[in-house]
Specification:
It contains four helices and six strands, in the order E-H-E-E-H-E-H-E-E-H.
């Protein structure tokens, strides 16, 4: 059975993750509150798109999130992302939850949960240090 992946937030990061998962043969559902966000998905994207308020638990359940093996949360709002990470991990029991935080200090709020944080700031900082040290030339 193929992995069911839910991506919540279809900005640049969410769309890129959804496109990649689709290319890898995963079943992908992308949720966003704005229909126009789905224009970021590739023409070859073979998953589903749902316009809904991801903070509404009934809407998430109607979208089928309870069947997801993994949820990737990439909205532009750290507080929404934190809420969705807690819901996904504790209420819905999703096995793999990934959440984007712009503020690295939000990480302590998910300690002890089966949630893995993504920090764009940290990734940029690490990349800068690699470039500055000469360990990476491009």
């Amino acid at each position: 059975m193929r992995t069911l992946t839910f991506v919540i937030g279809c900005g640049r990061l969410g769309a890129s993750i959804a496109n990649y998962a689709s290319q890898q043969g995963q079943s992908v559902v992308v949720i966003d509150s704005e229909k126009t966000s789905f224009t970021r998905l590739d023409d070859s994207f073979s998953g589903y798109t749902i316009v809904c308020d991801a903070t509404d638990l009934d809407e998430l359940r109607d979208a089928g999130i309870s069947n997801a093996k993994e949820v990737i949360i990439t909205t532009g709002n750290d507080n929404v992302n934190l809420f969705l990470a807690h819901v996904s991990a504790t209420i819905l029991g999703i096995p793999y939850v990934y959440v984007r935080f712009d503020d690295p200090e939000k990480g302590f709020l998910i300690q002890g949960l089966n949630v893995k944080p993504i920090y764009p700031f940290q990734l940029s900082w690490d990349r800068f240090n690699l470039l500055k040290s000469g360990a990476e030339s491009k």
